[in-house]
Amino acid sequence: MPLDLPALRQQFPILHGLAGNHPLIYLDNAATTHKPQVVLDALDRFYRADNGNVHRGMHGQTERATAAYEHARSVMQQFLHAEHSDEIIFTKSTTESINLVARSYGRTLQSGDVVVLTVLEHHSNIVPWLQLKEEKNIELCWVDCDDGGNLNLTDLDRFLAEKRVKLVTVTGQSNVLGTRPDLRTIIAKAHAAGALVCIDAAQLIGHSAINVAELDCDFLAFSGHKLYGPTGIGVLYGKRALLKEMPPFLGGGMMVGEVFPDHFTCADPPQKFEAGTPPIAGAVGLAAAIDWLSAIPIEDRAAHEDALLQHAAARLKEIPGLHLLGPWSKDLPLTAYRLSPSSILSFTLSSLHPHDLTDLLGKQGICLRAGHHCAQPLHRRLGIPASTRLSLALYNTEEEIDRAVQAIKEIQKTFH
Amino acid sequence: MDLSADAILDHSRNPRNVLPLPTGKGRGEGYVHHQEKNPACGDEITLSLQIENDRITAVSWSGTGCAISQAAMSMLSEELVGKSLEEVEALPPQRVLDLLGVPVSLRRMKCALLGLHTLGNTIRTAKKETLQGWYELLEKAGL
Question: Residue A53 and residue A55: Cα distance in Å, rounded?
């Protein structure tokens, strides 16, 4: 069923404002998404009626806040198809979730243990492992990709066969190329070699159905604000057996059992990993976003975004000097491509630096992103200092794409 | 900001003072070198200065990045030869903005000032002083 776009867009107040003197054409959704009215209402309602601190105190407000927070946790569990709600930890972001794995699970690693990552990764799924390398002298091994953005799984095979790999950490969807690594295959290979798998689902979560039980991943991280939810809230999914054995991350209230002058005991997961007052309103807002999103069948969402992305690629190819990155750079029809890219594409323009291009577009209310997109290793691998990225959400339209392409054409003419 | 302003287009396409270092003295000998990057986006400038008796006697630089950053450095490079270190260190951010000759929005400020930032830290390198960070530079610019 095709989406009722006008009705959908109507639900997003920010789309009806102006960016300066121009209507807002927002094509930077990989950075953050806008929020439907139901999410704004949920945040407002929480603070108006349900506010209190969670798990503490014996009064009505505590009960309301705790109920709202724990309900949000069960919404996450159902959304991911996790077996148990204690496998859902609330954090403040994908980045914090991955840091949690690196600092908690990572503490159990020894010198010489190996963590495998890929050249597609965002810095949030690179730097914590570099930090762990400094601290624990673990080895990092990198899976390369081809110019189309497909991972060379032979690299992975080699590492798993030759090294003491404890963890493979990989993105579900590249935030630059939109390509999706073959997670099922990667997880099967890793598990067969005795390694765990952590998935950075920051981009994937908003554009695909995820079933962690079926996937059998060990950890999965995502952020609320890329999923039409508020900022300041993220999720880490972890298998129950793993979370039980892992040492805590941050220390403080709520994650403890007992505290003595010389030692402390931990609470059970997930509380063990939720120190201090959590982003309660964030969790409530995210649950509202997921309820809203889940009401729209994933097939309809994917069909809309895929059609838009193909349209964007086809129109951009018309521009002289414009070079699409990754899978679009080959002249193969996309159906021939093993795992079609989704919702994101990036490009370079020979006559103009991405910064200058997006600045000029921004002046017309058209929002794209320029730079290395927190993926310097990928840009180095592709041999470019920076790129321009266009990324979609459900509320984008074909007309918006056409206006953006027209603007790029005009700018290109001025500078060529 | 008007990127199509003739001066900016000209300087970004034909940057001045992007010269190979003289070979006579042994490549780069007698020059002090320093590189700075704009961490948000990948603009980068490497500057080489020949300093004799506390005066700049030669300039050479290279870089990659957006039109604003490269044009600003090119324009700045024309202001340096013959000046004393004291004069150069006193160059305010406003001087760069005047050279560019167009209004610079807040989000392009680091692009516009990358050259000046590199210049300041090249001189500090020559004088063996602590390098200055972005915050300090922007504070001086009143931003």
Answer: 7
Per-residue pLDDT of chain B (143 residues; tens, 9 = 90+): 566 688 888 998 899 999 776 655 555 667 899 999 987 777 899 999 999 999 999 999 999 999 999 999 999 999 999 999 999 999 999 999 999 998 888 888 999 999 999 999 999 999 999 999 998 888 877 77
pTM of the predicted structure, to 2 decimals: 0.92
How high is the pLDDT of residue B82?
95
Write out residues 348-387 of A within 8 Å (CB-CB) of B.
352-356, 359-360, 362, 370-372, 379, 385-386
Which structure tokens are listed for A137? 């002298």
B65, closest residue in chain A (CA to CA): A353
Angle, helices A280-294/A60-80, rounded to nearest 10 degrees: 40
How far A371 CA sits from the closest chain B CA (Å)?
Answer: 4
Task: Identify whether the C-beta of residue A118 lies closer than 8 Å to the C-beta of residue A171.
Answer: yes
B96's CB contacts (< 8 A; 6+ apart) are B72, B75, B76, B112, B113, B115, B116
In angstroms, rounded to a whole number, what is the distance separating the alpha carbons of residues B92 and B71? 17
Which positions in chain B have a beta carbon within 8 angstroms of at least one beta carbon in chain A?
1, 3-4, 9, 40-44, 64-68, 105, 107-108, 111
For A2-44, the pLDDT digits (tens) are 899 999 999 999 999 877 788 999 999 999 999 999 999 999 9
In the numeric block, which tokens belong to residue A59? Answer: 């009064």
d(CA B21, CA B2): 33
**B3 vs A354: CB contact, 8 Å cut-off?**
no
